[in-house]
């Protein structure tokens, strides 16, 4: 097994950490510079941030100095797009370093770590093989994560890489939550609930405690990560005790283009039809369902809202189903916790769609949850509590900082190696 050697960091030595966060429809990347032997209490501003929208083949880059570029990707290849994005670090108006050699370590978000990987680790051949093997459970994500690792190996062959697993935070689920009610042999085959978006859920729970000035170990929290992919987590004493995604990121809430949980009998019925194959069903469930499939418009909640405003019944139906399933799942998490101190909304929909927050919260007035409707509709530029002062449940909108959480893992591994 490879063993990365990282030069010790002194109080005056800057450490540059590059983070690649690959999602199902986008890739977000950033470069942090940390100085000193301790991590800052609050997330620092990255020197450089980039985002690739794979759907529209568009690259956007901005720097801490305010320089911005927007480019079209000439190729649909993720490897080519990643290489074009990385080149903006040391070339052109968004240049923030002289050469690639200034980067000390690279961190990646990896969706599925299976049972084998319950904590962050350095990239080795064994780790890459495991990520590839686990792609069967996360076919939209793990291959994209591997492509990012391969791109870094090509451009920065001597720089150590770290993988941070989305499943790790949910390693604390009790057996009653992670074992499926099928034959016990399923569990022996590794078929169990793993949960995802763990990096985001963990960060948001910790940030909520910080905002509220409370001890995380004394809080009962539901975190709602609502983006193109959606999941909830019930967090008690700082640990995940229940979550909506399962064996794969396909289970749970209705999502942008994923169905979420449906009657498995539907799948059996469809596979008995002559024109249905496993691959076709996989594509339908992961890429042609959810908001996109029901609305016929888009997987983007913003476009769903526009279509609703223009009188689209299917867009309205998609929104209504999304809210219904979100409320139902919050109720399930509430039962696991036995009460609720804070409800958190994060990610693209959670942070920006005030109608979704209002629709979800409306059902929980019986808990004494009171949403400040005026604050909820304001454009939120910072983390904020949007409940009324007399609300018995705090409602927080938190900008998820997955990239910073990944950077912290890189820093900690570098200092322990």
Automatic annotation (TrEMBL):
Its main location: cytoplasm. It catalyses: acetate + ATP = acetyl phosphate + ADP. Its cofactor is Mg(2+); Mn(2+). Mg(2+) binds at residues 21, 402. GO terms for biological process: acetate metabolic process; acetyl-CoA biosynthetic process. Mg(2+). Can also accept Mn(2+). The record marks 197, 258 as: Transition state stabilizer. The active site is at residue 166. It comes from the Bacteria. It is an enzyme of class 2 (transferase). GO terms for molecular function: acetate kinase activity; ATP binding; magnesium ion binding. InterPro entries: Ac/propionate_kinase (IPR004372), Aliphatic_acid_kin_short-chain (IPR000890), Aliphatic_acid_kinase_CS (IPR023865), ATPase_NBD (IPR043129). Its EC number is 2.7.2.1. Pathway: Metabolic intermediate biosynthesis; acetyl-CoA biosynthesis; acetyl-CoA from acetate: step 1/2. It is found in: Cytoplasm. Substrate binds at residue 109. PANTHER family: ACETATE KINASE (PTHR21060), ACETATE KINASE-RELATED (PTHR21060:SF15). NCBIfam families: ackA. Belongs to the acetokinase family. Homodimer. HAMAP family: Acetate_kinase. This is Acetate kinase.
